[in-house]
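## retry 2 of 3
previous attempt timed out at serialization; input unchanged, resubmitting
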Amino acid sequence: MYCHDTPASAREAYIRAVQHLYNVNHWRKLNDAVKTDFLLCDARGQALDRPARTGDLIRIDVVGPGSPSGGGYDWVSIQQLEEVNGDTPYAAMTVVPCPGPQSDDPAVAHFFAEGATNTFVVRRLGNCVLAEVHGRNERPNTDAPPLLDRVRNEAVALLGTVGLSKIQWKDWTAGVVSVVEVKPQG
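## retry succeeded, writing output
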């Protein structure tokens, strides 16, 4: 969380933080701790250079071996974008694991199984701007994919469980809201 001296500077920082949320292709620049690459793609897996939209895919290149069924990548689909204005505005993006766009296999190409969600939130509370990441129903994708995927997914999920993903998302949230240098809080 970063707090600002004036409501005007907080509003400006919030607007920039929301832009960072929707600019998936630059997420890597927001992380210092774990270098994961994110690429916004269309339904065919072709790179997009614009803000995220519902239905877009995000190609994730985690450190280490990639998902064989995802062409070497993990894939999520943007299920929902939500923005609420008012006294406590927020913007949220919810993603879900999905099959690789180049594959005929309908199995999820992600280390988390179908049913998992991640919701990325940016909000302004008074003069403070904060970002959050909420993971739900996160369990390793070990039921449906081929053997190589199952082994890899279990290993990646285990690394997340022991704290690697927490480090990455904590770093990401700090990067999203620190777009304007201000005094850090809590």
